């Protein structure tokens, strides 16, 4: 009797199982993508209203292209991302090499310190940086520079702040790659008359390259995306795109914001496709998995 | 060239913390020799090789290569090349670039490199594979690339760390022959690390048997097999029977007493074992002759004779392994070659006369 019951129960569960999974899947995807789809749709909405559909238009995009403030903040964002990524990638890679290859006094402390920016909340880091720039006298002096034909004034403090958190991410990604690298390859190179620089240049660096690119891409994305740290370290009157959007949103969600979001979405999508394609070309799929792409 | 010395180690010690990996090793390896380091896992073979290559520096002692003291000279400035156990081919380079690497580092000009790469790939029979990546090659092919990559530099000495370890048995046998032929062709000194005794015996000019960081015996393969000088060597190389015994006399001729008061002559007793002490007689299974009771068997002062019963027979194709229970309680294994198909096999339990010549019996410390 009880055996019969439990077996019919089992059958029911077997029938219910796949359906439950399908419904769960649909809900999960809806939860993730519905907001995005709504934003994209309303960026083409021919009305100031963000609640009601009243026909297709490209006018918000045209307005964006004519808005000097928004364009300036976009160039600021790109400039900060490019410069901080370059610096963080070089320093982060060197740090990864140092931490993975050498033992030294106090290594554990240095090692843990590197994870700090990943673990602590952005806001805590932002406040620490703010206090640091204020008290150290570095201040919020801008770097006046011409970037892609636009004159920018980017506070050094913002770049330093971005480098500070990006280093950690680059280091972690490069170290993962380094840890899985076969050390005898370096010995083989030196056995074949390569000095330590040539060994690094011809063997270690090319093998690390997917990791370095992965780390750089991560840093670039995080930097483009950052609001909190930029907001706290920029002093007055400096806007990156996220900071600018935040300023606009205080006056309510507008179709321009939807348009900006859609463009940023497109850009992120482009970055992901690029990184997957470049990884395909350079070879193995394990690497793609390793960097979570 | 007269017999100059390619590699010399003098009192080399390598300690990792409290672990002594290599303990006071001295070796002298002449030019053009195929020299093997043979020993069980962890005996210090790899460490020795790595010190010659310059990947590790000795804790004390000296290493000369081609008559030059190496001191703390780094690996990239030593005139030796290595074939690594797992090949260590550069995964991001083609076969061509892998093989060319050493010459590129030495700034040899491009056309000379191209010519020598072609020659080297020819030598290891890999022509036409130069555009492939290591991943696109079989284990045996990767191994040849590793060889070509090392040999192209025409090193004074080639160091090989279990280069065939990752190959299957059949390929391994083929590569053994190829490697040996190659070594004779190029005339370069090979220092070959292996823990496979058969490999060492078939390929080497001389073998150093190592244990716990020390050389236990050094000699030509025949010496190592036929005339082991310690229990460890006799046991590690090939198979052998050990019989407990008491040494009766060492001179003018050796004689020991086995269990049950059986006295047998022996050809060699390890130095320092005095009459009256317990020892171990070692006897290779193929050196034992079996006779039926009705047969005539060798007698005389150089012949050892013990009675026993056949306990077990194992047919292994070329020969049959006979396990014999001796009348004094000990057990020996005798390998008898299967000369004739029609020959009457022994029966289990049959009485048998076990005979060997004193020349094959060697006595070690227990
Ligand atoms: N870098 C190291 N640090 C500490 N101990 C080491 C190191 N390298 C080797 N050893 C120790 O030294 C001893 C000899 O090691 P080695 O690698 O030379 O052995 P081996 O004869 O090559 O063995 P196998 O046949 O397993 O390769 C071992 O006890 C090993 O644990
Ligand atoms: Mg080893």
Structural overview:
The complex is a heterodimer of chains A (293) and B (366). Chain A has 293 residues and is mainly alpha-helical. Chain A has two domains: 2-59, no CATH class; 67-292, Orthogonal Bundle (MetI-like fold). Chain A has helices spanning 2-42, 59-66, 68-101, 107-119, 122-136, 156-179, 184-191, 196-225, 228-233, 241-249, 255-282, 285-290, and strands at 142-147, 150-155. A two-stranded antiparallel ribbon of chain A has the order 1-2. Chain A is globular. The model of chain A is unreliable at 283-293 (pLDDT under 50). Chain B has 366 residues and is of the alpha+beta class. Chain B is built from eight helices and 21 strands. Chain B has helices at residues 45-53, 95-105, 110-123, 139-151, 169-186, 197-203, 221-226, 231-236; strands at 5-16, 19-30, 34-38, 60-65, 68-69, 80-83, 157-161, 189-194, 206-211, 214-219, 241-249, 254-258, 262-266, 268-269, 278-283, 289-291, 303-315, 319-326, 331-337, 351-357, 362-364. In chain B, the strands form four sheets. Chain B has a six-stranded mixed β-sheet, with helices on both faces. Chain B has a six-stranded mixed β-sheet with strand order 13-12-11-15-21-14, with no helix packed on it. In chain B, helix 2 (95-105) packs across helix 3 (110-123), helix 2 (95-105) packs parallel to helix 4 (139-151) and helix 3 (110-123) packs across helix 4. Chain B starts with a strand and ends with a strand. The model of chain B has no long low-confidence stretch (mean pLDDT 93). The chains are: A mainly alpha (293), B alpha+beta (366). At the A-B interface, helix 7 and helix 8 of A face strand 6 and helix 2 of B. Residues 45-46 of chain B line the site of magnesium ion.
């Amino acid at each position: 009797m009880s055996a019969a019951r439990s077996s019919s129960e089992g059958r029911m569960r077997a029938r219910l199982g796949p359906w439950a999974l399908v419904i769960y899947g649909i809900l999960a995807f809806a939860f993730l993508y519905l907001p995005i789809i709504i934003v994209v749709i309303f960026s083409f909405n021919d009305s100031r209203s963000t609640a009601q559909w009243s026909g297709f238009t490209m006018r918000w995009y045209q307005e964006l292209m004519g808005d000097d403030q928004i364009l300036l903040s976009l160039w600021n964002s790109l400039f900060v991302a490019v410069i901080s990524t370059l610096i963080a990638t070089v320093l982060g890679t060197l740090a990864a090499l140092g931490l993975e290859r050498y033992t030294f006094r106090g290594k554990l402390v240095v090692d843990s310190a590197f994870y700090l920016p990943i673990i602590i909340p952005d806001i805590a880091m932002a406040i620490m940086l703010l206090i640091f720039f204020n008290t150290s006298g570095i201040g919020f002096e801008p770097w006046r520079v011409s970037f892609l034909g636009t004159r920018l004034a980017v506070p050094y403090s913002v770049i330093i702040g971005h480098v500070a958190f990006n280093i950690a991410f680059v280091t972690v990604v490069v170290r993962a790659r380094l840890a899985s690298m076969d050390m005898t390859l370096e010995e083989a190179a030196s056995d074949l008359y390569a000095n330590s620089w040539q060994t690094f240049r011809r063997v270690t660096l090319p093998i690390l390259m997917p990791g370095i690119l992965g780390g750089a891409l991560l840093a670039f994305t995080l930097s483009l995306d950052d609001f909190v740290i930029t907001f706290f370290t920029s002093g007055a009157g400096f806007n990156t795109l996220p900071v600018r959007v935040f300023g606009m949103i205080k006056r309510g969600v507008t179709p321009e914001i939807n348009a900006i979001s859609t463009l940023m979405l497109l850009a992120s999508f482009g970055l992901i496709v690029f990184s997957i394609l470049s990884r395909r070309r350079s070879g193995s799929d394990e690497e793609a998995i390793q960097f979570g792409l | 060239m007269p017999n100059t010395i390619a590699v010399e180690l003098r009192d080399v010690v390598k300690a990792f913390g409290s672990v002594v990996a290599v303990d006071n090793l001295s070796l002298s390896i002449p030019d053009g020799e195929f020299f093997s380091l043979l020993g069980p896992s962890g005996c210090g073979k790899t460490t020795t090789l790595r010190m010659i290559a310059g990947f590790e520096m000795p804790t004390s002692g000296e290493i000369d290569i081609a008559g030059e003291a190496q001191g703390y000279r780094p690996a990239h400035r030593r005139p030796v090349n290595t074939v690594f156990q797992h090949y260590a081919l550069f995964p991001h380079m083609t076969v061509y670039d892998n093989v060319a690497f050493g010459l590129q580092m030495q700034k040899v000009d491009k056309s000379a490199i191209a010519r020598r790469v072609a020659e080297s790939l020819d030598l290891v029979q890999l022509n036409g594979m130069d555009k492939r990546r290591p991943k696109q090659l079989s284990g045996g092919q990767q191994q040849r690339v590793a060889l070509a990559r090392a040999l192209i530099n025409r090193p004074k000495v080639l160091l090989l760390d279990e280069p065939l370890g990752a190959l299957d048995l059949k390929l391994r046998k083929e590569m053994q022959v190829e490697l040996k032929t190659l070594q004779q062709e190029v005339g370069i000194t090979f220092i070959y690390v292996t823990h496979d005794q058969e490999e060492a015996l078939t390929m080497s000019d001389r073998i150093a048997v190592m244990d716990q960081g020390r050389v236990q015996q050094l000699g030509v393969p025949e010496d190592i097999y036929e005339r082991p000088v310690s229990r460890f060597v006799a046991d590690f190389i090939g198979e052998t029977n050990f019989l407990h015994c008491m040494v009766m006399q060492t001179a003018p001729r050796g004689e020991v007493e086995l269990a049950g008061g059986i006295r047998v002559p022996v050809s060699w007793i390890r130095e320092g074992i005095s009459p009256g002490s317990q020892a171990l007689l070692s006897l290779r299974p193929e050196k034992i002759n079996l006779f039926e009771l009705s047969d005539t068997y060798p007698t005389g002062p150089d012949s050892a004779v013990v009675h026993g019963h056949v306990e077990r027979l194992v047919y292994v194709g070329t020969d049959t392994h006979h396990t014999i229970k001796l009348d004094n309680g000990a057990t020996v294994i005798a390998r008898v070659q299967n000369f004739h198909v029609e020959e009457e096999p022994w029966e289990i339990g049959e009485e048998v006369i076990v005979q060997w010549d004193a020349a094959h019996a060697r006595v070690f410390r227990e």
